[in-house]
Amino acid sequence: MYLHLPLLLFLLAHATQSEANVLARSSESIVRVATRAHRRAVKGSAGLARDLRLSFRGILADTQQPAAISNSRIYCVSSSGFSSGGNGSEIANGGTTSVGFEPISTNVPFSGSSSGSSASSTSKLTGTTGTGTATGSGSKPTSSAGATSSPWKIVQSYQGSSFFNGWDFFTESDPTHGTVNYVDQNTAQSANLTSINGAGHAIMSVETTPTVASVRQSVRITTQFTYTGGLVIMDSVHMPTGCGTWPAFWSNGPNWPAGGEIDIVEGVNDYTNNQATIHTNPGCSMPSSSSSALNITGDVVSTTDCAAAETGNAGCGIRSADTKSYGATFNSNNGGVYAMMWTNDGISVYFFERNSIPSDITNNAPLPDGWGQPMAFWPASTCSPFQFFNSHSAIFDTTLCGDWASGVWGSAGVPGQAQSCAQITGVPTCQQFVQQNGAAFAQAYWEVKYVQIYQTS
Ligand SMILES: *[C@@H]1O[C@H](CO)[C@@H](O)[C@H](O)[C@H]1NC(C)=O
Ligand SMILES: *[C@@H]1O[C@H](CO)[C@@H](O)[C@H](O)[C@H]1NC(C)=O
Ligand SMILES: *[C@@H]1O[C@H](CO)[C@@H](O)[C@H](O)[C@H]1NC(C)=O
Asked: What are the entry keywords (predicted)?
């Protein structure tokens, strides 16, 4: 296994003392530690993306200047006046948001400069403030007065022909060791890996060249905008699926796992049930592994200790019970809406199939109190949401193989995966299959209607 220098430096910088000693001993040990870190670990490192970007800013060729000036807007709308499609005043694009829930570690090193050169281009755009600032209330929003009044206001929206404005294209080696090469925005556009289709939906696909010698081109994008607390809503009509795929829609904060990681949509191969997972510093756990005690529709599938360092990075994973929440069945049902809510009560993830999306969501005035049980919930009682999580960016990626999809290539038994991919494809390794079967990745694409980030004010 090949570990590049930045990854090694990252591991050293973030390892616990004992791991650091191991790391220092030999490169073979480094590989073992990295492998143990397994799928979740290093992926978890949004961390990694941002840390590398910062640590190596001096030597990174920062070529991912957005092709067009961003038209994305951040809206600050007065609570009483907000309604579907309401207009607000544009503040800035790509700023860092610190929400006033709790006065902890909001002064992250990324404030006001979440994306290097892109940030300056966006402040040139607005000619006003260079940093988006939104504020949030400290308590769980409840609908007041009118039953249709939502406490949640859109602060950032990615949709339509300007969907890709306001995202950074990650171009480092895949931290999860996938058989991919993450390309920059210009390359992605020329290779038609990103586009906006006739319906106005954003497409993110992978290279389908019949045979490749090593890796396939893919994309991994990160919002320049960051948020601490909020409600993230993502509507997708199609997601990558099939043997060899490992897509995710997720978020993380700085200095992984200190800033926390929230995996909203994730799975591998032919899975049909989504898994949502959090990864944190030590001290965050779940009070129970019982669905009824947690008041969730999903099932806890891993440890109740969410600390990356204490669990081999397994984190606290919860699998949806909905067989149309991920993969081919999600796609044949025209997908649906995922919502991640992060408040003083905790962090929760909801999924709504296409035909049961609440009207308050489609009306851009979400009322989570009426949504019923979430598929996943990590209560604040045992995991302080503003101690273990801060300054998140939302991320889409599609990797191929990598630690997770390769690791379970020969395994079956998870919903959707009655037979293993090794059995289905007749190919012994994920990497070999990916390299030699480009046509198999025609369904390995995201088709996203929108991503919206809401906060209370
Ligand atoms: C926002 O305001 C502009 C200019 O007044 C108007 O043209 C547009 O229709 C408004 N959009 C919405 C969604 O109300
Ligand atoms: C580019 O990709 C889109 C979406 O996958 C597809 O509909 C379109 O035909 C592609 N265009 C070309 C020129 O290949
Ligand atoms: C469980 O969640 C539902 C839906 O949010 C709520 O109505 C109910 O009161 C909750 N039950 C408990 C025991 O918390």
From this structure: Glycosidase, Hydrolase, Signal
Minimum CA distance residue for ligand 3 atom 12: 295
Report pLDDT digits (tens) over 170-227. Answer: 999 999 999 999 999 999 999 999 999 999 999 999 999 999 999 999 999 999 999 9
Domain 37-457 has CATH 3.40.50.150: no
Q: Is 19 tagged catalytic?
A: no
> Nearest to residue 207, comparing CAs of 199, 215, 195, 196?
215
CA distance 308 to 389: 13
pLDDT band of residue 451 (cuts 50, 70, 90) is very high
What's the distance, CA 79 to chain centroid?
28
CA of 393 relative to ligand 2 center, distance in Å: 28
Q: Where do the structural domains in the chain lie, given as residue ranges? A: 1-35, 37-457
* CA separation for the pair 353, 361 (Å, rounded): 13
Which residue's alpha carbon is nearest to atom 8 within ligand 2? 192
Model confidence over 286-295: pLDDT tens digits? 999 999 999 9
Q: Ligand 1 center to residue 65 CA distance, Å?
A: 28
Q: Which ligand is nearest to the CA of 368?
A: 3
Per the listing, tokens 């607390």 go with: 229
